[in-house]
């Protein structure tokens, strides 16, 4: 059965169910086809809560992008409390009635609370071809495709929110400490994570946008990398007319990057939300002092004890009340869902519009999240930071990269300052430059990492388990990886620094691979043999590791 065919039957059942509950008449094609055959018919229930009514549509509930639930409120069968919805969402299908007959169906999104509901599209029963005994027609396919498009977009938004939630702690640490190092076992996605953090810091979404932003640079250290590559040094010039090659002083990649960051202009729009919010609170306090409330959207607001907007109807039978916090409104200002349930989203957006109309709140842009006091953020990633000779590469910048000495107060003269046209010229690392380093725990050079540099970075370990979550590894693959890593920890001569990260299970597009035998023989086994080279009983240890991975 195709998804169109399943969806058609689901709509036909939904229509038959509601019409039977309204009329109690055991007649009609819909009743004969769908209701009559059910032995223990449940008139009402909440399918999204797993109640028995969901069993009545079990055959047609599952689709590529999610499951659909049936929800029937027994108090008003003709009301908006009776609907089909994508599971865990407020994306619904509602019935359109004419007396006791359903004449059409419509798609509604953002339907919780109901005051937020937005109609998307509607079709008549006739146009959808329901109960016509024919295959799904083009209208029904279009209806399903629109319903499907909304859940696809919703899924993407949830994935984005989940990703943001996972990396937010790293972003907070980077903002506070300026310099972080991501460390962990091989394949734990440290470089990938560094770029994800950079995207959020800069305010872009794709790798291409990151590269084109002008606010990002990436370098990989190695044993021959030095100060002249990183800060500045002498470089040969092209031969002159006599064939003589000279030398001139050239800025290194990091110095050029810092100079660009120091010249960064303020964002075109700076977030003035705090000021607008305080002005709103002042206006509401003044109104309260005069014995009146402030009308915003559909409600009259006062203030709670914690300076949140408060609506209360204690003088009415319902005694209905709610509060809206500053954070709720700020999330709505950024275009985010303010509460997980989506409750009162429209009312929060009304407050945002009120702030714009009355207190000059500027339009929000993504760049506002990616600024340092209004100045654009610049992110410099150093991959394999421990493979270079740190003292030789950074030189006097040990002082300047310290979070306490960012900006002009940390200015230093470089090693080649005597060759500058102005010998008083100094170099500093701007406040809006953030450094992310990455390194593998098992590299032999880790032990030699300069202690003066160690204390200038915040160190964050990325475990194999975290990497599985960060890279959305399927559960069965994750369990296989965990069993292998448990055996690695139990193997003499190895420890958690030798764990296998999630990247070993992904293809070049970042998707999970299913060819387990090839993953073992081509990716994991050669690495483990290298770890165990020269150790006693290495063959037996490999077999134990293989058994843990393949069982």
What does the model show?
This protein is an alpha+beta fold and 551 residues long. The protein has four domains: 3-153, no CATH class; 210-230 and 251-264 and 377-412 and 425-461, no CATH class; 272-359, no CATH class; 464-550, no CATH class. It is built from 18 helices and 20 strands. It has helices spanning 3-23, 29-35, 125-128, 138-177, 190-202, 207-212, 227-230, 253-262, 273-289, 326-333, 345-359, 390-394, 397-400, 451-454, 464-470, 475-489, 516-531, 538-550; strands at 45-46, 62-63, 66-72, 83-86, 92-98, 101-109, 118-124, 179-184, 216-220, 232-236, 247-251, 294-296, 299-303, 309-312, 321-324, 371-372, 375-376, 378-383, 433-440, 458-462. Strands 1, 2, 3, 4, 5, 6 and 7 form a seven-stranded antiparallel sheet that branches. The chain has a five-stranded parallel sheet with strand order 9-18-19-8-20, sandwiched between helices. Strands 12-13-14-15 form a four-stranded antiparallel sheet. A hairpin with a 2-residue loop joins β5 (92-98) and β6 (101-109). The mean pLDDT is 89.
The major beta sheet can be summarized as: 7 strands, antiparallel
The total count of helices amounts to 18
Q: Which runs of at least 5 residues are low in confidence (pLDDT < 50)?
A: none
DSSP strand (E) fraction? Answer: 15-25%
How many domains is the backbone divided into? 4
**Tertiary shape:** globular
User: Count the strands?
Assistant: 20
- Write down the Rg: 31 Å
What separation lies between the terminal Cα atoms? 35 Å
Helix content: 25-40%
Mean pLDDT: 89
Task: Determine the structural class based on helices, strands and strand pairing.
Answer: alpha+beta
């Amino acid at each position: 059965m195709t998804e169109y065919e399943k969806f058609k039957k689901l709509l036909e059942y939904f229509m038959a169910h509601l019409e039977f509950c309204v009329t109690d008449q055991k007649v009609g094609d819909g009743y004969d086809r769908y209701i009559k055959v059910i032995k223990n018919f449940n008139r009402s229930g909440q399918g999204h809560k797993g109640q028995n009514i969901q069993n009545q549509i079990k055959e047609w509930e599952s689709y590529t992008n999610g499951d659909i639930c049936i929800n029937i409120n027994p108090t008003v069968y003709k009301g908006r409390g009776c609907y089909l919805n994508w599971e865990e969402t407020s994306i619904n299908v509602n019935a359109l009635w004419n007396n006791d007959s359903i004449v059409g169906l419509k798609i509604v999104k953002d339907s919780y609370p109901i005051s937020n509901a937005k109609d998307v599209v509607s079709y008549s029963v006739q146009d959808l071809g329901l109960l016509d005994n024919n295959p799904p027609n083009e209208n029904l396919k279009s209806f399903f495709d629109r319903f499907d498009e909304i859940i696809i977009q919703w899924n993407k938004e949830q994935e984005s929110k989940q990703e943001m939630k996972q990396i937010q702690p790293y972003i907070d640490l980077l903002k506070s400490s300026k310099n972080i190092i991501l460390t962990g076992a091989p394949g734990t996605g440290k470089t990938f994570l560094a770029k994800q953090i950079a995207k959020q810091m800069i305010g872009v979404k794709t790798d291409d946008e990151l590269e084109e932003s002008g606010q990002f640079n990436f370098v990989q250290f190695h044993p021959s990398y030095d100060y002249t590559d990183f800060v500045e040094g002498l470089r040969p010039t092209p031969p002159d007319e006599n064939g003589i090659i000279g030398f001139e002083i050239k800025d290194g990649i990091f110095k050029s990057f810092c100079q660009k960051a120091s010249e960064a202009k303020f964002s075109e729009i700076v977030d003035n939300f705090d000021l607008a919010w305080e002005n709103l609170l002042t206006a509401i306090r003044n109104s309260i002092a005069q014995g009146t409330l402030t009308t915003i959207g559909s409600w009259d607001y006062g203030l709670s004890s914690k300076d949140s907007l408060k609506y209360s109807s204690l003088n009415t039978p319902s005694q209905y009340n709610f509060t809206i916090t500053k954070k709720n409104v700020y999330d709505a200002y950024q275009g985010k869902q303010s509460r997980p349930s989506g409750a009162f989203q429209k009312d929060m957006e009304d407050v945002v519009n009120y702030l714009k109309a009355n207190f000059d709140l500027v339009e929000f842009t993504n760049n506002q999240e990616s600024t340092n006091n209004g100045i654009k953020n610049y992110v410099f990633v150093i991959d394999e930071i421990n493979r270079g000779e740190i003292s030789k590469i950074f030189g006097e910048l040990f002082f300047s990269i310290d979070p306490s000495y960012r900006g002009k107060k940390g200015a230093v003269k470089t090693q080649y300052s005597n060759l500058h046209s102005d010998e008083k010229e100094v170099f500093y690392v701007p406040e809006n430059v953030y450094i992310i380093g990455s390194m593998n725990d098992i590299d032999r050079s880790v032990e030699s990492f300069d202690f003066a540099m160690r204390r200038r970075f915040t160190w964050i370990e990325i475990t194999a388990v975290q990497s599985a979550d960060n890279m959305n590894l399927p559960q069965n693959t994750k369990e296989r990886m965990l069993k292998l890593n448990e055996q690695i920890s139990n193997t003499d001569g190895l420890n958690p620094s030798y764990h296998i990260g999630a990247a070993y299970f992904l293809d070049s597009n970042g998707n999970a691979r299913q060819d387990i035998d090839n993953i073992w023989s081509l990716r994991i086994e050669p690495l483990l043999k290298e770890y165990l080279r020269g150790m006693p009983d290495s063959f037996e240890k490999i077999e134990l590791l293989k058994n843990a991975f393949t069982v």
